[in-house]
Every structure is written in structure tokens, then in C-alpha cells.
TrEMBL record:
The gene is pdxT. GO terms for biological process: L-glutamine catabolic process; pyridoxal phosphate biosynthetic process; pyridoxine metabolic process. The keyword Lyase applies. It catalyses: aldehydo-D-ribose 5-phosphate + D-glyceraldehyde 3-phosphate + L-glutamine = pyridoxal 5'-phosphate + L-glutamate + phosphate + 3 H2O + H(+); L-glutamine + H2O = L-glutamate + NH4(+). It comes from Thermacetogenium phaeum (strain ATCC BAA-254 / DSM 26808 / PB). Keywords: Glutamine amidotransferase, Hydrolase, Lyase, Pyridoxal phosphate, Transferase. This is Pyridoxal 5'-phosphate synthase subunit PdxT. Belongs to the glutaminase PdxT/SNO family. GO terms for cellular component: cytosol; glutaminase complex. L-glutamine binds at G39, E40, S41, R98, I127, R128. Catalyzes the hydrolysis of glutamine to glutamate and ammonia as part of the biosynthesis of pyridoxal 5'-phosphate. The resulting ammonia molecule is channeled to the active site of PdxS. Signal peptide: none annotated.
Length: 184
């Protein structure tokens, strides 16, 4: 609906997966997995509500729908947003701080070591990214940057505070697809 959704669709298609944009409850009911992209979390939240997807997403999430959340998507899924009264779905047991690395001009690229994706570093683009301040007991931290979690997994939810969809590296999307299929 808002943010880097086209880039996710393209990444999934390059992984050999059928991918579509979701804007209605009926389309949400059709998908076997979902990506909530980076963008602007308050805009995404308002659009989910205005398109009638908020409750449907809560229901599907409770039914164990595999979800990949990136950047703003992590904020939308979080149980809490530190320093904000913004509403979130609460499907992911993390507390996040919005725009924690700074403003747009403070955006940066780095490489991360993610054991689950192999020995080669993974390119990571952080754009006004949130920081995961705390994780619940069922959340597994898969990668950190400056001692803060930047990639976490809770059951069938995979959440990255960076933008893997903006790189040519498909390993994170492939990992998510394997996770969604029950292979991980």
C-alpha cells in the first residue's frame, strides 16, 4: 500500500515465487505469506485501517501467517513503540524506537553477518530505521548492529529493521520463503 512494496514483489519474483500486491481483505485471504515493507509506519497503519485490513491482518497473524516485516513493517508489527502513542498490531514481541538512527540524511549502508544466511556478509540499507530496544522470550535475534538487534524471528515472523528489498542480494527473501514453507 505504501513504501517499498514493489521492490519486495520484484525480489520474491526473482526468487521464483508468485507474488502480488495486497490491498483488500480478499487478497489477504489469498496469500500464503505476506511482506509488510519499509515506508512510513503511520501511513501504513492508517491505510491498513482505511482498507479494512487491520482486523484481518490481526486474525491471519494469530493464525500463524508467515510475515516478513522490513523497517516500518517492524514498527507496524511491534508490541510497543518507545516514546510514541502510535498504535501497532502487537504480533511481534519487540519494543522499537522509530527513526532511531536519525533523519533521512543519516541513512547508511553496511554489511551484516547473518549466520542463518551463510558466511558471506549481507548488504543492509538503513533508511530512518527503527532500533529494536527489547525482545520478548520467544524472539530469536539473528543479526545485530552496534549491539542492537536488527534481524529477529518469532515463529513465522521475520523482521528486519533494514531494507533487504533495496539490494540485489536475495538471501533474506529466500530464507523467508523457506521459513514460510516450513523448511527452516
Amino acid at each position: 500500500m505504501q513504501g517499498a512494496f514493489r521492490e519486495h514483489v520484484d525480489a520474491f519474483r526473482r526468487c521464483g515465487c508468485e507474488a502480488m500486491e495486497v490491498r483488500t481483505r480478499e487478497e489477504l485471504d489469498e496469500v500464503a505469506a505476506l511482506a509488510i515493507p519499509g515506508g512510513e509506519s503511520t501511513a501504513i497503519t492508517k491505510l491498513l485501517r482505511s482498507f479494512g485490513l487491520w482486523e484481518a491482518l490481526l486474525k491471519r497473524g494469530a493464525e500463524d501467517l508467515p510475515i516478513l516485516a522490513t523497517c516500518a513493517g517492524v514498527i507496524v508489527l511491534a508490541r510497543g513503540i518507545v516514546g510514541s502513542d502510535q498504535v501497532s498490531l502487537g504480533l511481534l514481541d519487540v519494543a522499537v524506537r522509530r527513526n532511531a538512527y536519525g533523519r533521512q540524511v543519516d541513512s547508511f549502508e553496511t554489511e551484516l553477518k547473518i549466520e542463518a544466511l551463510g558466511t558471506e556478509p549481507v548488504p543492509a540499507i538503513f533508511i530512518r530505521a527503527p532500533i529494536i530496544e527489547s525482545v520478548g522470550p520467544k524472539v530469536e535475534v539473528l543479526a545485530t548492529y552496534r549491539e542492537k538487534a536488527v534481524l529477529v524471528r518469532q515463529g513465522r515472523i521475520l523482521a528486519a529493521t533494514f531494507h533487504p528489498e533495496l539490494t540485489a542480494d536475495l538471501r533474506l527473501h529466500q530464507y523467508f520463503l523457506e521459513m514460510a514453507e516450513g523448511k527452516r
